[in-house]
From TrEMBL:
The gene is nanE. This is Putative N-acetylmannosamine-6-phosphate 2-epimerase. Belongs to the NanE family. Keywords: Carbohydrate metabolism, Isomerase. The lineage of its organism: Bacteria, Bacillati, Actinomycetota, Actinomycetes, Micrococcales. Its EC number is 5.1.3.9.
């Protein structure tokens, strides 16, 4: 059964509002402004990274905030431990997102045990950022409300596709009927977003193509310089 908070997200666009350390836009106030702008454009939810961003964004938008805390850059680093998960929710996230792969977590807890402990303190929906069909199935069995294809191609489990991994998306949708399966990762055009929806995605997450000016500028610059 779908969590009541998720029904308004069905068929909609979720925008990931993140900037990386050292970039000009890497400031919570900037990300909060970006989040407000994408909601004006029709986003049904936003995804925010870092406790300060989550807190500020949650105060600026009237749509659900999917919160994460990236800690590190190798292995499991998306809300990697129970401590991180608790902090993201305490910062004001409406939905908690965390690594949903089968890789070992830094605190030694399994995904299912992490979810169980979170649920003792909060009824917020939980999103699992997965990389394979096996991980998606395990995360759903472990209690995740949302299964995202977020990490497909970003671990060693699957090759990185040029664009979203629609094959994985279709496999997960088929394997998990009734589960909110969200397409995320390398969705760079409206046509790709539409293709993900047509493949059965409950909702579609777009980040870089909307909220990362340096990358978007690079795409245009590269096209102009190509010979």
């Amino acid at each position: 059964m779908t969590h009541p908070m998720l029904e308004p997200l069905r068929g909609g666009l979720i925008v990931s509002c993140q900037a990386y350390p050292g970039e000009p836009m890497r400031h919570p106030e900037t990300m909060a402004q970006v989040a407000a702008a994408v909601v004006d454009g029709g986003a049904v939810a936003v995804r925010a990274q870092g406790l300060a961003d989550v807190q500020l964004v949650a105060g600026r938008v009237d749509v659900p905030v999917i919160g994460i805390w990236k800690d590190g850059d190798d292995g499991v680093f998306i809300s990697p431990t129970l401590r991180h998960c608790r902090a993201v929710l305490a910062a004001g996230a409406d939905i908690l997102a965390l690594d949903g792969t089968v890789r070992p977590r830094p605190d030694g807890l399994s995904f299912a045990e992490t979810v169980r402990r979170v649920r003792e303190e909060s009824d917020a929906p939980i999103m699992a950022d997965c990389d394979t069909l096996a991980a998606a199935v395990a995360a759903a069995e472990g209690g995740a409300d949302i299964i995202g294809t977020t990490l497909a191609g970003y671990t060693d489990a699957r090759p990185r596709t040029d664009g979203p991994d629609l094959n994985l998306l279709a496999e997960v949708v088929q394997a998990l009927p009734g589960v909110a399966v969200v397409a995320e990762g390398r969705i760079h055009t409206p046509a790709q977003a539409r293709a993900a929806a047509d493949a059965g995605a409950f909702a579609v997450v777009v980040g870089t193509a909307i909220t990362h000016p340096a990358t978007i500028t690079g795409w245009f610059d590269g096209a102009l310089r190509a010979r």
